[in-house]
Amino acid sequence: MHVPRKRFTDFAMVRKEIADETDRQTGHGKGISSVPIHLSIFSPNVVNLTLIDLPGLTKVAVEGQPESIVQEIENMVRAFIEKPNCIILAVSPANQDLATSDAIKISREVDPKGERTFGVLTKIDLMDKGTDAVDILEGRAYRLQFPWIGVVNRSQQDINKSVDMIAARRRERDYFANTPEYKHLAHRMGSEHLAKSLSKHLESVIKSRIPGLQSLITKTVAELETELTRLGKPIANDAGGKLYTIMEICRMFDGIYKEHLDGVRPGGEKIYHVFDNQFPVAIKRLQFDKQLSMENVRKLITEADGYQPHLIAPEQGYRRLIESCLVSIRGPAEAAVDTVHGILKELVHKAINETHFPTLRVEVGNAAFESLERMRDESKKNTLKLVDMETSYLTVDFFRKLPQDVEKGGNPSHSIFDRYNDSYLRRIGTTVLAYVNMVSSTLRNSIPKSIVYCQVREAKRSLLDHFFTELGAREIRQLSKLLDEDPAVMERRTNLAKRLELYRSAQAEIDAVAWSK
Predict the structure, then answer these.
(1) Does one domain contain both 27 and 70?
(2) Cβ–Cβ < 8 Å for 139, 149
(3) pLDDT confidence of 340, banded at 50, 70, 90?
(4) Which keywords describe this protein according to UniProt (predicted)?
(5) Which of 245, 325, 444, 470 is the most exposed place for a label (fewest CB within 10 A)?
(6) Which residue range is the domain that position 421 belongs to?
(7) Same domain (yes/no): 147, 122
(8) Are residues 94 and 70 in the same domain?
(9) Using CA atoms, how far apart are residues 136 and 144, in angstroms rounded to an integer?
């Protein structure tokens, strides 16, 4: 792959290119590199197989190698063979003790059940006279889940003499067929049998992985499609296309904003917290009982009477006392309107962050804020009207139901100035407090309704109406300015589209294989 347009037909040149690329990557010493050299071989005489040729495990660094080379090689080998889809070829020389084989040791560590390990025995032809590898090859000396396979490779002398692989394979077949110790095993020995066994095993592994692969690819395709949808389609060149794109983004923002308010996404619950907690607590903090202390009641009653004391009941005094209490509810009412306004603005920030056009994000945000401010002003006006209504007209039935002095056996001819004594004033304060509490209870319910009607409901219905009206009058140059997409987002969309195409192609191929099986 480092020379993608070059094709090789001579394996001597392939060997040379591998050696040259190794030197380019590691220098002319005996170092290693984790950068693989990719080589694809096309031939009617080879099986479908991907082989990763790792450096041999070593125990000591030789001249020209760093002391860390031992650990570096082991780490590199582990990085590949730990992968669950990897088939491990544990290659060990027959003329050495298998108990000390590094390949078998590390394979057992990462694949303790031997479900993906093939044992390969080399240098069988170089064993001492009088010894053989039959016990190993028949699985008596060291059993693996798959049978051991013996191979006879070219010697260094063969390589130096440029003995080709066809001749080497023929010599290998002759060796196993004509050596008495291995004749009965010849049908499952040799490099050709190893390649076929690996290819067959790989095919069975792939078949078993197909359902999992299908599930993984389907999930990945769905994730890529979701992200591409979030990023939006590429920008059109004409004014109509640009306007459509902007409207679609605005509609998406509007939908997300409504989801925050309706509880699909978090944030809307804060508004309920204002009505259920903050607003009632603020009214409670007004402490009407303290406003209706004996001193305040006496002061307001006498002020309302003026130069002439009241004759029957201090009606003007009652009105002033009630009004002084109810007017103080305006503060918590305004605060509730402002708090809900702040929450609605915060939700705009959350919803607009999913729009990836910076200028459009700012414009839509500003338009939404302007609408929310208009809604807040209208809400504040209507909410304060509710309080003013209560102060401007009292509920007469409440006072009609109160017991009168005569009914209680009082003496109506009693001196009018006795009406200013403490018990009389206390009864007035109690009556006013009961009325104010009744009105407060009513306002605790009606003010949230007014706020929701004027702010929350309107925000869901017409948050961007003014922006849409103004948008239609813009020229293509102004529309283009709104769609100044971040180059990183454009690149991300292109890469995602390419990945999605690859995954869909893989999905179609795997589905075809699955159905054919």
Answers:
(1) yes
(2) no
(3) very high
(4) GTP-binding, Nucleotide-binding
(5) 470
(6) 240-407+416-487
(7) yes
(8) no
(9) 10
Query: How many structural domains compose the chain?
Result: 3
Q: Contact at 8 Å (CB) between 294 and 489?
A: no
CB neighbours of residue 76 within 10 Å: 16
Would you say 510 and 210 are in contact if contact means Cβ atoms under 8 Å apart?
yes
Please classify residue 453 by burial: count the beta carbons closer than 10 Å to its beta carbon, then call 0-12 exposed, 13-18 middle and 19+ buried: middle
- At position 118, the amino acid (one-letter code) is F
Q: Is 202 a member of any domain?
A: yes
> What is the pairing mode between strands 117-122 and 88-93?
parallel
**Residue labelled with tokens 């239609």:** 472
The CA angle 158-1-152, to the nearest 5 degrees, is 25
pTM of the model: 0.51
> Among 38-42, 56-60, 156-160, which stretch is predicted with the lowest mean pLDDT?
56-60
- For residue 181, the one-letter residue type is E
The reported pLDDT for the residue numbered 69 is 80
CB 93 within 8 A of CB 123: yes
- Which of 81, 106, 130 represents a domain boundary (last residue)? 81
Residues 6 or more apart in contact with residue 260 via CB below 8 angstroms: 266, 267, 268, 347, 350, 351
C-beta of residue 354 within 8 angstroms of C-beta of residue 253: yes
- Mean pLDDT (the chain) is 84
Containing 91, the helix (H) or strand (E) segment is: strand 88-93
